Amino acid sequence: MYIIRRGLYAFQSGLSRKNKQFVLFMIDALLPPVILVLAIAVTYNGFSLFDRLPRVFYMLPALSLTGGAVSAWLGIPRVQLKSFETTAMLRTALYSALVTAVAAVLSRFVVPGFGVAGITIYGLMLFLAAVSVRLGMLHLLLWVLRNGQPKHRVLIYGAGTTGVQLVAALRSHDRIVPVAFIDDNEALHSMTVAGLRVLPPSDLKDLVEQRDIDRIILAMPSVSAPKLARLTRQLRQMGLQVQSLPSFAQLVGEEELIDNLSPVAPGQFLGRDQVGDMLAEGEQAYRGKAILVSGAGGSIGSELCRQLIPCGPACVVLYEVSEVALYTIERELQELAAGTGVEIVPVLGSVTDSRLTRMVINDHHIEVVFHAAAYKHVPLVELNPLAGLANNVLGTRTLAEAANDAGVGRFILISSDKAVRPTNVMGASKRLAELVVQDMAKRSRGTVFSMVRFGNVLGSSGSVIPLFKEQIAKGGPVTLTHEDVTRYFMTISEASRLVLLAGSFSDVETSRGGDVFVLDMGKPVRIRDVAVQLINTAGYSVRDEAHPEGDIEIVVTGLRPGEKLHEELLIGAGLLTTPHSKILRAREDSLSELEMAKALRALRSAIAVGDHDGARRVIKTWVHGYRAPVQETIRAIHP
């Protein structure tokens, strides 16, 4: 059998397209006379008619010529076998009808006794033969083509219209074998649809093992994306390849292909009015100035750069450690600054590199520094405390000293509400960075140092909105650390305006600097409310005990090491006003010059020898209000 199949495979592979069309043409030409002989035998119960009326043989070549001509006219030989069922069945019926009509006319003169019954039998037999021969050739061809080739045995999940259409399309494929349908509808179970059995999902595991299934196709375009995503994860855990198919109506444009996860405006989750365009009053502070933005490729740094361009600075130096981020923001700003006269200078490097920071500040005569470079992801910094402290604390010290020594006019540190009575290394590192800036402000040679502290920035890298949207796209669950956790929120544009305004206020308010500027952010927002709103905005519903048919589940995972239930913005009490009603100023305690020197010396020593415990002791000693995570948790992270 193998030799026969290999021989047939070699034969069909050697035929050109024209050769194959000629074979099909000859079949259409030979079928009419052959079927006539068979129809006469059926009508007259044998072949005796040929003895009594030998002129019947004259009909055979005439019908052969007619069959060939009609077939060529209808283009049937040009239809590929695998497309015959869908594109040529009607043509075959017309072919049979025309040839039968010619046979009817000829039989009146040649076989007067053949009659209507004989012609009817002939027409039906001709149509069935024409269809059967091609279908038989198709199955023979598929049998030959599948010889020695890997076959994908697939299950179709969904026995609806899309699934049935998919099976019809796959049947003619030489390497894909549809095995069965899987469907949740109990009414369809054990039925046969499009020639395949419909089985319940409970039979899936056994069917995969018994029938050697390696792929499953989801043909359920009407099912919501979260449910499809959950089903996909379950099937992939069984070792199956999973593919999802839209409806055929969607593919041809009759129905819209909808992405329910449409863009969401972060500002809609604030629970307050956004701070409007307040930069105009501080714009003059940056006009014609040379400005350096560290962390220029990050969420805040990049938005700072975008908002600086309309202020008309002479030069914006993009200081960034990530090559990809620097490349991306530099290309964007070059287009944004085209025709404005603003020079864009990309610098690839770390703020911990003292030589590079001093060289860049001096070479470009920097007058304003916005220090946004920091490691800010709480769990990552908790796992990597030395890297976080080195970058956030020592990097700030390096850049601040370089700015002070070069006589930079203003230095603005971007800080975080997690610096207030921190419970994690990231927050503690930001508080130490604030202490560094406060120390520099007290002994500055002319540089005005200040800090901007704000809450979570919606839409920034690592914020809840991108995380929740990603989880919703995967079908959930949306993870929440605590039901009652709250955070202060602001948009990226608000945060950037605050930073720019804080820089412009420094000269106005005090020549000593050291101020902490905060935004009046209203009431803190409950994170669960944000998750529910995002799910509803995406067009889905929350799935819980009260609504088991919902789309997305919210799962509480517990507070992470060092994570607070509620964040704060101020360490001490009391706020002072600024020229803008929504921006407030705080004067907070700082370390003495001697204490700061001891803290930095101890921190450098711990980092140099890789002493995690020593670094944590520095935090505990010098960061007021620091509450370390449970000791067991720390040991689990760094045994």
From TrEMBL:
Alphabetical list of CDD domains matching this protein: UDP_invert_4-6DH_SDR_e
Alphabetical keyword list: Membrane, Transmembrane, Transmembrane helix
Pfam families linked to this entry: CoA_binding_3, Polysacc_synt_2
Transmembrane feature ranges: 21-44, 56-76, 88-107, 119-145
Record-annotated Polysaccharide biosynthesis protein CapD-like domain positions: 291-586
Family: Belongs to the polysaccharide synthase family.
Listed name of the protein: Polysaccharide biosynthesis protein
UniProt source species: Gemmobacter lutimaris
Lineage: Bacteria, Pseudomonadati, Pseudomonadota, Alphaproteobacteria, Rhodobacterales
